[in-house]
Amino acid sequence: MTTDVAKATRSLLQGARFALSVPELRRMPPDRGREVAFAGRSNTGKSSAINELCGQRALARTSRTPGRTQHLVVFELDAGRRLVDLPGFGYAKVSKSLRAHWERELPAYLERRRALAGLVLMMDIRHPLREQECTLIAWAAAAGVPLHVLLSKADKLGRGAQADALRKVSRYLAEHGGAQADVQLFSALKHQGTETAWAVIGGWLDVVPADSGDVQGA
Ligand SMILES: Nc1nc2c(ncn2[C@@H]2O[C@H](COP(=O)(O)OP(=O)(O)O)[C@@H](O)[C@H]2O)c(=O)[nH]1
Ligand SMILES: [Mg+2]
Predict the structure, then answer these.
(1) Which has more confidence, 20 or 3?
(2) Which in 87, 117, 130, 156 has the greatest CB count within 10 A?
(3) pLDDT at position 91, please?
(4) No. of H helices and E strands in the chain?
(5) 94 φ, ψ (degrees, to nearest 5)
(6) For the chain, which residues make up each domain, given as ranges?
(7) Buried b / exposed e along 58-67 (16+ C-beta atoms within 10 A)
(8) Measured in angstroms, how far is the CA atom of residue 36 from the centroid of ligand 1?
(9) Three-state SS at 17
């Protein structure tokens, strides 16, 4: 089902390379083309997910110092497409002024960035829907940005508990998640959910399966 778009997306993401890191929105590359942003509380596995999806071991540095990266990090896929690693949030040691800064910048990014095709939100499957995660879901819904939740570290739970978490978040999104909001299980460690995530991201980035190019003109 996921195969063609997922495969083409895998290839596109394999070519991801670090482009730049910016401390504020106005330093982002011109608002053209399409980008997919990744958000999540610190330590939920965002860097690991980006590395897994791009098939690269150290593209996004997996950090043992949560909250250190307060920049938007841009990875270029091709001339018109990007991934954006948003600053982790919810880390107590981040200063109040920095937090206030992101409480302005993040909703502004969701509201104004025309290139933003979708937001991937990482939530630790063991304790999803924390306050700031719900805030971000509300912001994305208000801005009309398609949302895809990855319930990360799924390997930490058994099948039954995974299904419970999935149901709970799915219900929450149906009520609060805006028109386009979905959720899936994910484990970077076990390569679980990677294909599904590729298909979603590929859809957002307008990825066309390699062989289907001339079908439309027929
Ligand atoms: N068990 C398990 N641990 C993970 C997984 N993904 C990330 N981690 C661990 O969670 C910690 C934080 O991961 P990282 O990707 O740096 O999270 P970030 O702060 O959200 O970017 C690291 O110790 C990772 O090894 C996963 O799928 N399964
Ligand atoms: Mg990280």
Answers:
(1) 20
(2) 87
(3) 67
(4) 6, 7
(5) -70, 135
(6) 3-210
(7) ebbebeeebb
(8) 20
(9) strand
Q: What is the pTM of this model?
A: 0.93
> pLDDT (tens digit, 9 = 90+) per residue, 97-147?
777 878 888 999 999 999 999 999 999 999 999 999 999 999 999 999 999
Does pLDDT of 206 surpass 50? yes
* Phi, psi (deg, nearest 5) at residue 198: -55, -45
116: Cα within 13 Å, side-chain hemisphere: 26
Mutate to test the pocket of ligand 1, among 59, 62, 191 (most ligand atoms within 8 A of CB): 62
Q: Which residue is closest in CA terms to ligand 1's atom 1? A: 153
- Rounded to a whole number of angstroms, the distance between the first and last alpha carbons of the chain is 23
Ligand nearest the Cα atom of residue 43: 1
Structure tokens at 85: 């690693």
Strand, coil or helix: 145: coil
Helix (H) or strand (E) holding 159: helix 159-176
